[in-house]
Amino acid sequence: MKMTDSGFEIFKLDFAAPWGKIYLSLYSHGSVLLPMMAYIYICYWKRGNFHCHPIREKLEAFVTQAEPSWHLIAVNISNEFRRNDTLVIRLGTTGKLVITNSWLIKVSLYDVNFALQRDASLTCVDSDVHHISPEGAQNVQYLTIQVKSSTPRVEGFSFRLNAEDFHTINDRLQHNITILPHVSFHKSRIQHFLEVFRTFITSNPTHLMEEDPELCIGCMSIAAEVKLVRHCVEEGGENPCGSCQCRPMWCMDCMGKWFALRQDQNVPHLWMSSKCTCPMCRVTFCLLDVCPVRKIGNAG
Ligand SMILES: [Zn+2]
Ligand SMILES: [Zn+2]
Ligand SMILES: [Zn+2]
């Protein structure tokens, strides 16, 4: 590459020179021959019922008496993939990890790897933290996870995963991911805040309830844990905090995430003294107004 008057020039071919004609001939023949070779290769695979095709070879390793052909395995994967509980996680810019009920599939630019969930053991072997990433300017941690299959002839594979997706995939696997002792998880700013938020809220006055709290409408996995009750006293001036009449609907983590995501991300040291609005009625509250809930009669 060299600099010219019209900018950078990568190749300069002089077709009038003797070598120029050879280059031109190679280019023109290559542009016809390469697509022809690809077509012939595809025809060769098709005539032989995809014998020697890399994906067929990988699927044949899973052939059993119950599923005696790779066709049946491919149909099984297709059917599971179409279900609405299939989890697809992006791995970098070109790869994907697909988790169905019984399969774990890594799709990369030039390759596909399969593992049966019941036979696969996943190990988190390494991690690296980057201060800038395609997802944003915050610190991001990537984990290297190795997949080994106990099915004979099935090749192991590995993938790099954003640490924030770790729990999402771990919850969908039949066996938990083993984490090697030297791998430590880097906590994101939000995770740090949630720990402090939880400790702070626990020391606020408890709100007693007569009935059991409903499921948190944010995560739908645990019961609601907090209610907004104004307890703060603003010294001098008007207190913007209002009285929220909503019933307890959020767990601590979901309320903490709601609070953190509505703060100025450039000044995290001010979050604890900041205010936010109720997710339902939009009444302003501060952290002193977030009270843990407890059913009357329950110890705690
Ligand atoms: Zn929740
Ligand atoms: Zn409210
Ligand atoms: Zn308040």
Structure characteristics:
alpha+beta; PH-domain like; 6 helices; 15 strands; binds zinc ion; 4-stranded mixed β-sheet; 4-stranded antiparallel β-sheet
Write the layout of secondary structure elements.
Elements: E1 2-4, E2 7-9, H1 18-47, H2 54-60, H3 70-81, E3 87-91, E4 95-99, E5 103-107, E6 112-116, E7 120-130, E8 140-149, E9 157-162, H4 166-172, E10 178-179, H5 189-202, E11 207-209, E12 226-228, H6 252-261, E13 275-277, E14 284-286, E15 290-295
Parallel strand pairs: 7-10, 11-15
Antiparallel strand pairs: 1-2, 3-4, 4-5, 5-6, 7-8, 8-9, 12-15, 13-14
The protein binds zinc ion (3 copies).
Protein name: E3 ubiquitin-protein ligase TM129
GO biological process, one term: protein ubiquitination
GO molecular function: ubiquitin protein ligase activity
Task: Report what the structure shows.
The protein has helices at residues 18-47, 54-60, 70-81, 166-172, 189-202, 252-261, and strands at residues 2-4, 7-9, 87-91, 95-99, 103-107, 112-116, 120-130, 140-149, 157-162, 178-179, 207-209, 226-228, 275-277, 284-286, 290-295. It has 300 residues and is an alpha+beta fold. Among the domains are: 83-179, Roll (PH-domain like); 189-295, no CATH class. A hairpin with a 2-residue loop joins strand 1 and strand 2. The longest helix has 30 residues, at 18-47. The protein is elongated and about 90 Å long. The relative contact order is 0.08. The model has no long low-confidence stretch (mean pLDDT 86). Bound molecules: zinc ion (3 copies). The site of one zinc ion has 7 residues, from helix 6.
